[in-house]
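hey m, so remember when u said the C-alpha cells were messed up on ur end? i reran from scratch. heres the input so u can diff it against urs
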Amino acid sequence: MKKSIIALTAAVGIFGLSACNNANDSTVLVETKAGNVTKDELYNAMKDQAGAVILKDLVYTKVLSEKYEVTDKELDAKYDEMQASLGAQFDAIVEQNGEDFVRELLKSDMLKEKAAMDEIEVKEGEVIKASHILVQVPQEATEEQKAEAKKKIDEAKKKLDNGEKFEDVAKEYSDDGSAQNGGDLGWFGKGRMVPEFEEAAFALKEGEVSDIVESQYGYHIIKVTGTVENFDKKKQEEKDEIRRALLQADQTALQNALDKAIDNADVKVKDKEFKDLFKTEAAAE
C-alpha cells in the first residue's frame, strides 16, 4: 500500500507536468545563484527515476477500465475497509495526498483484482471456508501452561460434543481474534495455513468438526462451513470471496490478466525510452 502511494504520488507530478509540457519547457520553477531549475528538468528527472513503473500502472488502469467497472458503492466499501484496517496510517496518507487521489489509487487496485479474478479457475478441494477455536500455547511454555491449555481445549471439545453451537463455544474459549465472529476465518486456499491445520481442515466435509489439532500456535478445533460444491449456484458476492481467496495463492493470475489486457488493447508505446516497457514485463515482475 505504501509503495503504491509513493509511486502514484510521483505519477501525479510526472504526468501532470507532461500534460502541459512542450518538447522543451523552460519555465523556471526555482531560481538559484548557481542556475535555474526548469519544468523540463524536473519532468525528465522524475521520468528517469520512476517513469517506467508509473507509466505501466497508468496504462493498465486505462485499458482495464474499458472492460471492468468499479462502482461508487464498491469504492466506498474498499475505502472504509482500508481506513478501518490501517487507521492512523491511512488517515496520514489521505491528509498528505488528498482523498480523491487515494480513491483513484484504490480504484486502480480494484480494477486489477477484478481482471485477475477472471483468470482464476475454481476447483473443488482447492479452497474452503472454515471456523476454528484456538487455545494458544506460548512458544516456550512450561509443562503447567501446556496442561492448562490442553484442559481448556478439552472443555471446548466436550461442549461441542454435547451439542453446543460452534460459534458460542468459539466466543467463550478461543484466544484467536476470530473469536468475536464465532471463529469464522472466511474462505482460504491451500498454502495459507500451517500444515497441521491445513491437512485437518481440507480432510473435512462441509459441516464436519475436527478432533483437536496441535500446531505451533497451540490447539485448534476446526469446522468447515463452506466448500465450492455447486459453485455456479452461489451468490456473486460469495463467488468473488472464493476467487479472491484463490488469488492470494496464485502468483501468476494477476500478471497473466495484465498481459492479456495489454495484448487486447493493441498498446503501442511511442516514447523510444520505453519501447520495451511491456515486452519484458514478466521477467521484471
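this time it looks ok to me. Residues 127-226 form a domain with the Chitinase A; domain 3 fold (CATH 3.10.50.40). if urs says something different then somethings off w ur setup not the seq
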